[in-house]
Design a protein that fits this description.
15% strand; 479 residues; five-stranded parallel sheet; seven-stranded mixed sheet; alpha/beta
Length: 479
């Protein structure tokens, strides 16, 4: 292994440079700590990184691709990341849902325009999202806090809980048209759970609210741009980052009063070694993960030829058909099966960011939820779902690269079994993440804190797991 340089200059060391690790590092540095981040890969970012995965000149997002929470994050939105090169791109419309006949349901940033477009389903859409949109910043501040905490905006949070705690299938009853229910299902399926599970309405409610509040943006030039801005800001604050450092033991670290671990609970146990008490070890070993993904990255000779040209206005697409079809596909995956017509989440960046591909060419990013050991050949089934919505898509393919659950976990142990949310996102998985304590970032070692997506508030590019872990460390170890 490669060891970090030994030094007495660091107050805190952060293991892992994903968005939570970097957010934790910046939070500590803003408080006056001298912070060192150690990353085992050659490039920082983990799931928030970009690379030429197909052909030279094509920039693909290795993990996350669309970042409404990145723009709206209570931490990121208050930091001057634009001064360090971050430039957000917002497509004309946040997302579209593709029905089985190829028609697109385009959700506009304007709530009024969306409600008008949905016809008879618009009233229910307005009922779901109108109250959330009016106080979206307060809602996000409370939802992205560890529990239990007294809410700062109790009325808004109560409204969120009333509609978000029930299963997504129950919330869909407010929507009176197949088009509106399908769009709601596409939002809820981001949670990688059967839509009949309590709590799945929360994903739909949050993501839909953000679509109307801030659109679904992405960084110009690739997800790496957000990581690079965080690293540059950290260095401006006096911190540093070293890549190619594979930490196998806490003894590998330079002296520091605080250690933040942006990795999986399993890696944390390995690092703690004998410091992990039997009770703590039992809790961590019971930690559960959700479904994995099989991800496809494409280099294309032209834009995707959608049956419905309106889909050229959106950055993100959900392919899955009706509410019933999406629910069936996600339930099949949860049972360990592979749906013939999977729910596919896709992004088309180069329609709005030409810097990611050579002139006239395009990238396309897509994945489907799958059991962890799904063979790569299932990529053909995912591709067939795209081809049905865009006949002639296959004729445009210059190169396709597949990333399976095993490869995703190799990129970052946070994604165990290919679970991009870092742990099962049902109600118990959120309340006991990774164990049911008021401050789950703390560990049996008083200087070590877990700060990954396996801590509250869970998955997503928002950095709040790192932010709250750093706040706990600052409370325990004040300067």
């Amino acid at each position: 292994m490669t060891s970090a340089r030994r030094s007495s200059e660091w107050d805190a060391v952060v293991i892992g440079s994903g968005p939570n690790g970097l957010a934790g590092a910046v939070t500590l540095a803003r408080a006056g700590m001298r912070v060192l981040v150690l990353e085992r890969n050659a490039t920082p970012g983990g799931g928030l990184s970009s690379a030429a995965l197909t052909l030279p000149g094509f920039t693909h997002d290795v993990g996350s691709a669309i970042h409404p929470l990145g723009l709206a994050s209570p931490a990121f939105r208050t930091w001057p990341l634009h001064a360090f090169g971050l430039d957000w791109i917002t497509p004309p419309a946040p997302f579209g849902h593709v029905l089985e006949d190829g028609r697109g349901v385009v959700i506009e940033q304007s709530l009024d325009a969306t409600a008008d477009q949905l016809g008879a389903g618009g009233r229910g859409w307005r009922t779901l999202f109108g109250p959330m949109l009016a106080g979206w910043e307060g809602m996000l501040d409370d939802v992205l806090r560890p529990l239990p905490r007294l809410p700062r905006h109790p009325l808004t949070l109560a409204r969120f809980g009333l509609r978000g705690v029930p299963p997504a299938t129950l919330g869909a009853r407010l929507l009176k048209t197949p088009e509106a229910r399908a769009a709601w299902a596409g939002l809820a399926a981001h949670g990688t759970l059967p839509l009949s599970v309590p709590g799945t309405g929360a994903a739909a409610l949050m993501l839909g609210t953000l679509a109307h509040a801030v659109n679904w943006p992405f960084p110009r030039g690739g997800a790496q741009s957000l990581t690079d801005a965080l690293v540059a800001y950290l260095r401006f604050l006096g911190g540093d980052l070293q890549t190619g450092v594979n930490v196998q033991s806490l003894r590998d670290l330079p002296p520091a009063r605080v250690v933040l671990v942006d990795s999986s609970p399993r890696v944390l146990l390995h690092l703690l070694d004998d410091a992990a008490t039997p009770a703590y070890r039992r809790w961590i070993e019971r930690y559960r993960y959700g479904s994995g993904i099989l991800k496809l990255d494409y280099a294309l000779s032209g834009p995707v030829p959608w049956r419905d040209p309106a889909l050229n206005r959106v950055g993100t697409l959900h392919l899955g058909g009706t509410l019933e079809a999406v629910a069936q596909a996600e339930a099949t995956v949860a049972r360990g099966g592979l749906p013939e017509r999977p729910y596919v989440l896709a992004a088309q960046h180069t329609l709005f960011d030409s810097s990611r591909a050579p002139a006239g060419a395009h990238t396309f990013w897509a994945y489907a939820h799958v059991p962890p050991h799904t063979p790569d050949t299932y990529a053909d089934t995912i591709e067939a779902q795209i081809e049905r919505a865009a006949p002639g898509f296959r004729d445009l393919i210059l190169r396709r690269t597949t990333t399976n659950a095993r490869q995703l976990q190799a990129l970052s142990p946070v994604f165990e079994g290919g679970d991009v949310n870092g742990g099962r996102g049902d109600l118990w998985g959120l309340l006991a993440r990774p164990l049911p304590t008021p401050t789950p970032y703390r560990t049996p070692d008083p200087r070590v804190y877990l700060c990954s997506s396996a801590t509250p508030p869970g998955g997503g590019i928002h950095g709040m797991g790192g932010y709250w872990a750093a706040q706990a460390a600052l409370k325990d170890h004040p300067l």
